[in-house]
Write a structure and sequence with these properties.
- By secondary structure, the protein is of the alpha+beta class.
- The strands form five sheets. The protein has a six-stranded mixed sheet with strand order 6-8-10-11-12-13. It has a three-stranded antiparallel sheet with strand order 1-5-4, with no helix packed on it.
- The radius of gyration is 17 Å and the shape is globular.
């Protein structure tokens, strides 16, 4: 997810962005403050706002969501761009989440919790690279989310590279399980087989 930190200037004419309290914003603030832009994230008590996205970012999410929905077993659901509450001061918005079906409460639902997720996926944008690759992965691991994917554009190409990680519960850290260039073929968290070549993107 691409984001920019909050500041004191106007986000839109006549709308002033909130100034964080000394202890930082909380999850309650995220869902009650007026005039926050869509897809605002909360990380360590700071608000981050979504920047304009590249076509690559949008179309890769579409490709992976479609592939996951073809493969997902009963008892799990695939969601895109939904807030996930990790703790009082952290509520990021993974690009894709695979959640337990019993965590779904209705069409007006606005959030899931870390214990609801079996997989979080971040598609990296240029200005969110460090945050998605390093910072968010640490947060997801500390919260106990079992699987994490980091998706980037292949250097010199126009197709995604997917790095897959699995949580080591003994130290709450992710361990790399694979780097996938043309086909995303996995047996965990369930059987997955997704074409991630440039041709697959061109068909969308």
């Amino acid at each position: 997810m691409t984001a920019e930190p909050s500041s004191a200037h106007d986000f839109e004419p006549g709308i002033h962005l909130p100034v964080p309290p000394p202890e930082g914003f909380t999850v309650d603030d995220l869902f009650t403050l007026p005039h926050l832009p869509p897809h605002t994230e909360l990380i360590d008590g700071s608000l981050f706002f979504v920047s304009p996205q590249r076509d690559f970012h949008s179309i890769v999410i579409d490709l992976l969501v479609a592939g996951l929905r073809r493969a997902v077993p009963s008892g799990l659901k695939v969601r895109r761009e939904m807030t996930v509450v990790l703790d009082r001061h952290n509520a990021p918005e993974p690009d894709i989440s695979v959640v337990r079906a019993d965590a779904f409460t209705g069409r007006e639902q606005t959030r899931y919790h870390s214990e609801d997720l079996v997989l979080a996926v971040e598609v990296v944008s240029p200005d969110s690279e460090a945050r998605d690759r390093d910072y968010k992965s640490l947060k997801y691991a500390a919260a106990g989310i079992p699987h994490f994917w980091l998706v980037e554009m292949a250097e010199g190409n126009q197709h995604p590279v997917v790095r897959t990680f699995e949580l080591n519960p003994s130290n709450k850290a992710y361990e790399l399980t694979g780097i996938h260039h043309d086909k995303l073929e996995l047996s965990a968290p369930f059987d997955i087989d997704i074409d991630i070549t440039s041709g697959a993107l061109d068909e969308l």
